[in-house]
Amino acid sequence: MTEFAEIWSYLSETPLLWLAATLGAYVIGDGLSRASGRKPFVNPVLIAVAILAAVLWASDTPYATYFEGAQFVHFMLGPATVALAAPLYANLSHVRRAALPLIAALLAGSVTAILSALGIAWALGVRGETLLSLAPKSATAPVALGISEQIGGSPTLTAVLVILTGIIGAIVVTPLLNLLRVRDWRARGFAVGVAAHGIGTARAFQVNETAGAFAGIGMGLNAILTAILAPLIVGWLL
Amino acid sequence: MILHLTIILLFQLAGEVTARALALPVPGPVIGLAALVLAFLASPRLARAVQPTANGLLAHLSLLFVPAGVGVVGHLGLLGAQGGQLLLTLIGSTVLAIAAGALVFVWVLRLTGDSE
User: Fold this and answer.
1) Shortest Cα distance from B7 to chain A (angstroms)?
2) Cβ of A164 under 8 Å from any chain B Cβ?
3) Residue in B27, B57, B90 nearest the CB of A80
4) CB contact, 8 Å: A74 with chain B?
5) Tens of pLDDT along B14-32?
6) Which residues of B touch A113 (CB under 8 A)?
7) Alpha carbon of residue B56 to chain centroid
8) Given this model, what pLDDT does residue B114 score?
9) What residue in A sits closest to B58 (Cα-Cα)?
10) What's phi and psi for A14, nearest 5 deg?
11) Which of B1, B10, B62, B106 to mutate to test the interface with A (most CBs of A within 10 A)?
């Protein structure tokens, strides 16, 4: 019988182990989320990340080793961004009719997301690379990482901040907009897509299909706008 | 399904090439997204064919964020020192951005007289 150490040294050199672990952790997270009746704070991403972080820590595995396996999942962010064309096309008639509100809400949401992140963090004493890493936090992950690098932030820190923003957005959107008495599904979805990218969009799709489609549109448009605005705002302010 | 996935990848590829060739600040996949919408408009047949595969990809959107999220392990020291401030910032900023976007959307809808 082969020693466990030998099997481990084989597994730790192929992408198989961490690819399987990533999917497995997500299946657990998704299962718990479903069992909770899709309560937003039982977030599958958060659970999967916590499980994997604990496993990496316990097995003393560097993130770079983990990522060699997980990169196949990470890669699919690009095609998924392109695939947002499907809900956008399916809802184009809604988009045309709500063009003005869309543009106004996009500008308001995008500028508020960047300025308030920088302003609150500055007031709390956050400076330097960490502060810059916050600027693109509402944009979708692949876009935010590129922006962060461009303006002098830390891309991996931005990745974490982007995910946390998405989870916070998914958790607060329903109670917040109920409190503000916003009932229009287009407004609700669009706002969470702009502020909380793909995780917010995934949440919106769970609640209502129109909200999900508008969230996808908001996420796509804010990816473009944040790529343009974040370097400008950071250049003016810092 | 493979054909439709290939179409999606080709649009991403075209987007990346365009973004790099023209040094655009907009990420390649976003350009691919816009180009694919235009292609759907030009050919509703293409839209009907690709939509099931595209929606299948989007059904598991959350999963795709997991590898980047695990990057948290590289920042545990920073999160320990400034985690409170960062969490407050993210909660405050996300609440403000959602509220601003939704309220402005509803407000402009009312101004333009569309209240569906």
Assistant:
1) 10
2) yes
3) B57
4) yes
5) 999 998 999 877 778 888 9
6) 93-94, 96-97
7) 15
8) 60
9) A80
10) -115, 155
11) B62
Record the pTM. 0.81
What average pLDDT does the structure give for chain A? 90
Q: Calculate mean pLDDT across residues A153-169.
A: 89
3-state DSSP assignment of residue A62? coil
Which residues from chain A sit within 8 angstroms of residue B96, using beta carbons?
Answer: 112-113, 116
Please tell me whether the interface predicted TM-score (ipTM) of this complex is above 0.85: yes
- Phi/psi region, residue A192 (left: phi>0; alpha: psi -120 to 50; beta: rest), is alpha
- Structure-block tokens of residue B106: 């509803």
CA-based nearest distance B21→chain A, Å: 16
pLDDT band at A189 (very low <50, low <70, confident <90, very high): very high
Task: Please state, in angstroms and rounded to a whole number, the distance separating the CA atoms of residues B42 and A228.
Answer: 28
pLDDT digits (tens, 9 = 90+) for B33-47: 889 999 999 999 999
CB-based contact (8 Å) between A68 and chain B? no
- The 8 Å CB, 24+ separation contacts for A66-70 are A66/A18, A66/B67, A66/B70, A67/A18, A67/B67, A67/B70, A68/A15, A68/A18, A69/A14, A69/A15, A69/A16, A69/A17, A69/A18, A69/A19, A69/A20, A69/A21, A69/A22, A70/A18, A70/A19, A70/A22, A70/B66, A70/B67, A70/B70
Out of B12, B65, B112, closest to residue A79 by CB: B12
Q: A192: which 2 tokens?
A: 């969470």
